[in-house]
Amino acid sequence: MDEALEDARTSLWVQQEWPGIYFFKFIVPNDKIKLEQVKKLFRFEDQITYRTSTDIKFISISCKQEMKNPDEVLAIYKLAGEIDGVISL
């Protein structure tokens, strides 16, 4: 595990109780395929909220998800990072 990832993992352990609810937020290009790829990262689609940017080029996706530990959180960020154009916040 690289140093930045290990720092993020340690920070998550310190900042939050586990298991617990984690708030994810991503900025996605307004592209149906990429939007579907990000939606598939989460177990419950009804907990996802969307907000379109003013110029309609991007969509903000937010989701609160019950996670067992920081490793589950980081796994989702890793998968999101593999989707071209997606920005993790």
Provide structural commentary.
The chain has 89 residues and is an alpha+beta fold. It has one domain (3-88): 2-Layer Sandwich (Alpha-Beta Plaits), CATH 3.30.70.120. It has helices spanning 3-15, 32-39, 70-81, and strands at residues 20-29, 48-52, 58-67, 87-88. The chain has a four-stranded antiparallel beta sheet with strand order 2-3-1-4, with helices on one face. Strand 2 (48-52) and strand 3 (58-67) form a beta hairpin. It is globular, with a radius of gyration of 13 Å. It starts with a helix and ends with a strand. The model has no long low-confidence stretch (mean pLDDT 94).
Topology:
Blueprint: H1 3-15, E1 20-29, H2 32-39, E2 48-52, E3 58-67, H3 70-81, E4 87-88
Antiparallel strand pairs: 1-3, 1-4, 2-3
Short description:
The protein has 89 residues and is of the alpha+beta class.
Give a quick set of tags describing it.
89 residues; Alpha-Beta Plaits; 30% strand; globular
Second CATH tier, the architecture: 2-Layer Sandwich
How much strand content do the residues show? Answer: 25-35%
The separation of the N and C termini measures: 21 Å
Strands side by side in the biggest sheet: 2-3-1-4
Reading off the top of the CATH hierarchy, the class is best stated as Alpha Beta
